[in-house]
Amino acid sequence: MHIEKKTHADGSYYNLAVESYIDPLTQKRKRCSISFNLNTARAKAQARRELNEKIAGILEERESSQAEIAENLTFGELKQQWLDEWSVTVKPQTFEREKLVVNRVSDLIDDDILVKKITPLLIRQCLDNYQEVYQSTFTTMQHIKSTLNKIFDFAVLYNYLTFSPSQVVKVRSTVTDKIEQKERLEKKFLNGREVHVLIQELQNRRNPAYLDLTLFLIATGCRIGEAGALTAENIDFDKKTVSIQASLQSNNLRVNDYYLDTTKTSAGERTEALPDFAIAALKRCLERNKLMDDDHRNNPSDAFTYSKSIFRTEYGSPITSHSFREVLGRINRDLEKNCQQRYGFEWTKNVVPHSFRHIHISILRADPSIPLKEVQQRVGHIEEETTAGYTHLLNKSQKKSVKAVDEFASRIGILDVDTIK
How confident is the model over 112-136, as a mean pLDDT? Predict the structure, then answer.
């Protein structure tokens, strides 16, 4: 409690005893006060007692209201409250994806069920029924369970529940589910021989920017959206570093509607040291971009879109996850048919843009001299567990990371592509 001296309209003085408290419904700090005239120890003690009683009465009333809300709260109301609060903390595309999962949750548990009646056994039965009816994959069920966890954690936070009934429930997976999940993951990972073959195939593509983008992603572990947002201003060729500050958003958008957003996480904004083969790839791209821009200034075309992005399509627009997936998809299909004949082994992989992030992290994690913290900060992960999950103290120079990536590139022949124009 503290005392504030106030003045009446007639000029006389009075005292205001002030104390703050946390509203149990909103979790916001609020202010409560009472006035008194005499500035004596007895008057102050009396003011403290009255102020405490006033706050106790307010809290009792608010807690009673909250208990009433919790008593009658339905799952549909809880779900909407969580969605309203959570939606402002994530990117629009993340919110749109989550809405699809929320729709599945609505099929799982009726909106009019009282939250207090939802038990772990009920949730498990609902998950089992849903999986049986829709023949959903283990991954889909994991997504649904994750959303349920977030909804019920929200209920615990606001004292609607004392514990989350979904946290103790495990998504059931059969041996077949586990094998299929492992196979899907392994299809996205490439060993050194497979990376070498992919590089050779990319050398035969009409637009060499896809090859240079691949080399850059292997060298840095960047997300494809982060690479798409890069311009010449983000590269320091003297220091051999790249500054990652944004992410290109292109999903379901026309080229003219692409926009730059923040990186996926707060740790996503970072500076990475670059190996020489990545520097060479960037320089090749910038040289081609200059020639491309000059050509289209002299020979304008409605099909051309000017962009400052380093990695561009033949039409000038930034390379996106969608356009890169199309190129990689064509290579995957071709290698499935012809890899045995060309390279002497069967191609079983399904390379996607994120594969190169896995490759980069795996290269670094394979070197015991590189601390996990360095790998974590180099690729923009907040949690160490996330980085560790990608693998089958940030050093100021990042020399060990750059050396590890360079050695990998040398082993599989990446350094031999430096002469590509």
Answer: 91
